[in-house]
Each structure stands twice: as C-alpha cells, then as structure tokens.
Amino acid sequence: MKPPFHTLVTGASMGIGSRIAEDFASKGESLVLVARSRDRLEGIAATLSARHGVEVMVCSEDLGEAGGPGRVFEFCRARGISVDRLVNCAGFSVAGSFLRIAPEELHQMAMVNMVSLAEMVRLFLPGMIARGRGTVVNIASLASFQGVPGMGLYSATKSFVRILTEAINEEVRGSGVRVFAVCPGFIDNDQFYNRSGHDRKRIMVPISAPGVVVRAIRRGLDSGAAVVMPTLFDRLMVFTQRLMPRRVVVMLAGFFAGAGEKKSP
C-alpha cells in the first residue's frame, strides 16, 4: 500500500491558501495546514476532512517569528510525515509610503515573505530530492516584476521569491522534483487588503478570484515552467514592460495599484 501523498500549505487559514488546500483535498491528498490562527485552521480542517475524506492536520505557527519554519518541520518529522508538496502561500503587504512602515512590520514582512519561505524550502526540499519526487510551489506576485510605489517593500520581497525560485528550479533539474512560482496580480481577498490598509477601490486593474491561482498551480504542475502567471492580463502586463522605459513601468505600476499615499485636496 502506497503511503498517503502529503501537501503542506502555509497561509492556509484564509484567501488563496484556503482555496489551494481545498483543491488538493479534492484530489485526495492528505494535508498539513499552517497559519497563526488555530481556530480558523481547525474549522477548515474539519470541513475539508468531512467533505473529501482526507486526513488534515493543523500546525499553528507564526512564520513571522524566528524558528517558525523549524518548528513546522519538526511537527511533520515527529508525526512521520513526508511532505511531497510544499506550497508557500503565507505573506502580507503594507500599503503606503515605504518611510511610513513601522520597523516591526518591516522586519515581520521580510521574515514571512522571504526568510521563512526560504527556510521552508531549505528544510523540506532535501527529503523530496532523496525520494526522487516532490513539488515546491512559491506564491509570488505580478508585483515581483517591478517596484510598485506604495507597495515597495512587498514588491521587493516578491521579487526575491520569484528569483530564488527560478534559481532553485534549475539547481534541482533532473532530480524528479519541481520548483516553480505563481505570480498573480490582484486577488479578491478582503482580509489581505484590510491587513495591508490598501483601499481596493483605488486599484485600477482587474481583481481576480482566488480560483485563478489554483488553476495556475495546476498548469504549473503539468508543465516545466519555473514561473506561471494566472491570467492573460498578467502575461500582457509583463510583456508590455519590455516596450517601455523602466521609470515609466514603475510609475504606471504605482498608478494601477493605487496603494500610494492619498494626495491632499
């Protein structure tokens, strides 16, 4: 009898993360859900287990704290769980001028969006390579292709995610393991916007449903691409950057995002 296929999803308590967990559960995969809110995770776990008949375990952990990824890894090791698919979805943004980001939020964003993600990959990837199978999916962003005024630190952290993913994907080529990034534009997730202080009414581009990210992951699993963009609009936005001066690209990104400081009347 084959051992169960385990998928670990970070940021699984809401938005894109919970939709990704739902999709993998519907395919019969056992899950490990990671986020800070134990109550929310346990509610999602109970629903997915009842709906799809799969095992769903909850690991309540704050990836903004030092040692968080190590504790997640130990949670799995102690239970004999071999993670076959790692989906790094945890992340957050703070809208507005870079100079107005509180120091503690700056450090936490760097920890969650970059450091913890890199540590999670570093911890779980060797086991996948040893078994000759596995997938790492890192959720980056369309913002990773240029600096976005009003989302400067966020866009920089997502650029880190995309570039690191491209490099690791090449390093593991031929090992039986896939590593790829998904780069969505704005996704419908009120909790994300409320947390960031980003007024979604000011966003000047389409806001997609979380399902587009799920479908992009599925495309990524079936292809050899290191970077997957969910929609045609996302692909067009990146392509047209090649035709414009860099300063114009950055200026337009800030305009479309609508995350900068509001001008006084």
What does this structure look like?
The chain is of the alpha/beta class and 265 residues long. It has one domain (6-257): Rossmann fold (3-Layer(aba) Sandwich), CATH 3.40.50.720. 48% of the residues lie in helices and 14% in strands. It has nine helices and seven strands. The chain has helices at residues 15-26, 38-52, 68-78, 103-131, 152-171, 190-196, 211-222, 232-241, 246-257; strands at 6-10, 30-35, 56-60, 83-88, 134-139, 177-182, 227-228. A seven-stranded parallel β-sheet has the order 3-2-1-4-5-6-7, sandwiched between helices. Helix 4 packs parallel to helix 5 (152-171). The relative contact order is 0.13.
What is the element layout, followed by pairings?
Layout: E1 6-10, H1 15-26, E2 30-35, H2 38-52, E3 56-60, H3 68-78, E4 83-88, H4 103-131, E5 134-139, H5 152-171, E6 177-182, H6 190-196, H7 211-222, E7 227-228, H8 232-241, H9 246-257
Parallel strand pairs: 1-2, 1-4, 2-3, 4-5, 5-6, 6-7
Helix pairs in contact: 1-2, 3-4, 4-5
Give a short summary of the structure.
Helix content is 48%, strand content 14%. By secondary structure, it is of the alpha/beta class.
